[in-house]
Amino acid sequence: MNMIKRLALAAALLGTLAGTAFGQSVDFYHDKANWQDAFTSALGKAPVAVTITPYADTSTYQAAVRASLKTPQAPGLFTWWSGYRMKDLVDAGLVADVSDIWKKYVDAGKYSASLAGAYTFDGKIYAVPNNIAWWVVFYNKKTFAQYGLTPPKTWDDLEKINATLKQNNVTPFGATVQGRWPAFIWFEEFLIRQDPDLYNKLMTGQAKYTDQGVTDMFAKWKEWIDKGYFTDPSIDFGTACSNAMASQFAQGKLGMILVGTWYVSTLTGAGVDSGDIGTFIMPNEKPDMKPALIVESGPLLVAANSAQKADALKDADYWMGAEGQQAWIDAMDFPPINVDVKAKSPLISELATTINGGGYNQINRFWEATPSDIAEAAVDEIGNFMLHPDTAAQVQQNLQALADKYWAAHKP
Amino acid sequence: MPAVATTTPQSLSRAATAKVPGTRLMGRVEPYLYVLPAAVFVVAFLLYPMVLTVIRSFTHDDGITTPTFAGFDNFINLFLDPHFIASLQNTFIWTIAAVVLPVTLGLAFAITINGVRWSTFFKSVIYLPATISAAAVGILFSFIFGYDNGALNSLLNIFGVHNVRWLFESPINTYSMIGAYTWQSTGLNMMLFLVGLQGLPQEPIEAAKLDGCTGFGLIWRIILPMMMPYVVIATLLAVVNGFKVFDQIWVMTQGGPGRSSETLAVTMYREGFIMFNQGYSAAIAVIIALAALIFSYFYLRSVLDQEKQI
């Protein structure tokens, strides 16, 4: 073969290799290190190969992703947070519109259109669902059986359970400020049990933190704290070093934990047998209200400026399909959202039946439902209340000052 | 016998260099080539980011939209922000504590164990915490200060003392973290002072002993004055480190509860990487750098002036 032909063949081979090396895989970034294996399993058969990169620290992850989104080097797919937490990315034109993908699955009856609510801005959908978590009460079945308790159907039932556990030196509920963000858990829960409309208005600046409904909520919360129905708020929750809350739950010293359904693995990791974990949805304080629960909706986003955008959209489409979703649910035991996908565990299956068949009002979590400028500062104020329950009035004023400052500069 | 022509070394070198064009220029440039890699590194990873940070401090920048010029807004808003003022107060507490505790303890340990039996063992034990990262120290002391099962509360329970919120009540949380910081930093100061002690001239010390000066008097009147250069360096380093402290605070309390234990570095991180107010965060970084530089300048000038007078 003469030199020219050899050079031409070499160039062709190099071009093929280059084509293989570039543009044929999608970068997938996330900050949930312990979900790495599950992502790998769920995306193993994606149409375009996925390179999954975990970040160990959430702050570092957010900074790295935000810095890259304006460039073609942005990851094709990345996990993020819904609602207001992704609104600034949408407003800056940094995430791709995936409305067409949703339309395909909603029209086919595979997904409920309402699931896209937390990812919808100006009528367009900007994310596919990574995971849904329902915020329910986990209870230790052994502890309940020991004291003759059954899951409550009404608020009065719940108060009786609290009193019974307390009399027997078992702390009824876990509550913590450790890690800062958990401070909103009981704030949102007490509020939706009394007045979910007030909660929704509060999240968008149409109600005030100093309104009577919020004052009543703090009063109920303080009443429970004074009765000793909560752990000390400095208890570890597992978001940092140790997990005293899960340990006490396992040892029967703590009766119930209000948390997202993703906490099951933390409880089993603390030594609780999965068969001993029960769940119920908190009853409303007012009996004539529609049943409701807090839902956390984590999205997967496609970077609009990424060189991998076209391939990432193909993988996002696959992710929403039954094959990808079943592999994901099997790996993580999350609530299934594609109607063709079966729940992995009986616990999640029962919850899904209850919630989907019970007409529950699914309300977006505080962390995403209100602007992050308010949420980040609010958890510090609410944490102060949890540590010093006599400061409710001052905390309400401080919260309203935060809200006033934000909404003065932004439209709801 | 024919005369032997002699040449001087200078005439040899002039003859040699005159034969190779550009050698004189190369000789002048060559030293700079050796420092060029380090200089490029410093410019790229230190000076350039410093200049960018100063520029950013005069902008409103959220990292995803085009920054807008803000003039001195960020600096004005800083000093109007009660959280920043509280953060400044915490930083002063940390700085004073970082000087008083690790430096004093380090000096005391160095004087006590210098030359005694088993000194190698004691040096190793006291220095060991300095070999682990500040974040690891934070995690370790989070276990110690834990409310329910922490080692300290478990110990206090034995003596009938109820659980204490070591990390969740202000200002005890700041003092608890200063304790952790002292545990880690004392060893490094001790080593610095040991180096100093072992390099001291022995004649003045022997002479003082012959004159009957022993014990605390010997330390206070003879050894300490001779150790002053090391004390100056240790104090300066302690002040700068106190200004910058971040890792342990972030791991143990994240500046909480209610931002009560934030220092300037924690506030800077929070504003930059939690709230994404990167212009505001850059302004805090500029304040930290200026404060450290101004202190260092006046401190060193004062010490050097005193030495000149002596």
Protein chains sharing the most extensive interface: A-B, 35 and 28 residues
Q: Termini of chain B, distance in Å?
A: 67 Å
**Quaternary structure of the protein:** heterodimer
And the CATH topology of the largest domain in chain A? D-Maltodextrin-Binding Protein, domain 2
Which structural class fits the helix and strand makeup of chain A? alpha/beta
Q: Low-confidence parts of chain A lasting 5 or more residues at pLDDT below 50?
A: 17-21
Number of strands of chain B: 2
Question: Could you name the CATH homologous superfamily of the largest domain in chain B?
Answer: MetI-like
> At the fourth CATH level, what is the homologous superfamily of the largest domain in chain A?
Periplasmic binding protein-like II
Proportion of β residues of chain B?
A: under 5%
The CATH first-level class of the largest domain in chain B comes to Mainly Alpha
Identify the overall geometry of chain B: globular
CATH class of the largest domain in chain A: Alpha Beta
Main sheet strand line-up of chain B: 1-2
**Any idea how many domains of chain B?**
2
**Which stretches of chain B of 5+ consecutive residues score pLDDT under 50?**
1-9
- Largest sheet: number of strands, sense, barrel closure of chain B: 2 strands, antiparallel
User: Strand fraction band of chain A?
Assistant: 5-15%
Percent of residues in helices of chain A comes to: 40-55%
Overall pLDDT of chain B: 88
Taking Cα atoms only, what radius of gyration of chain B do you get, to the nearest Å? Answer: 27 Å
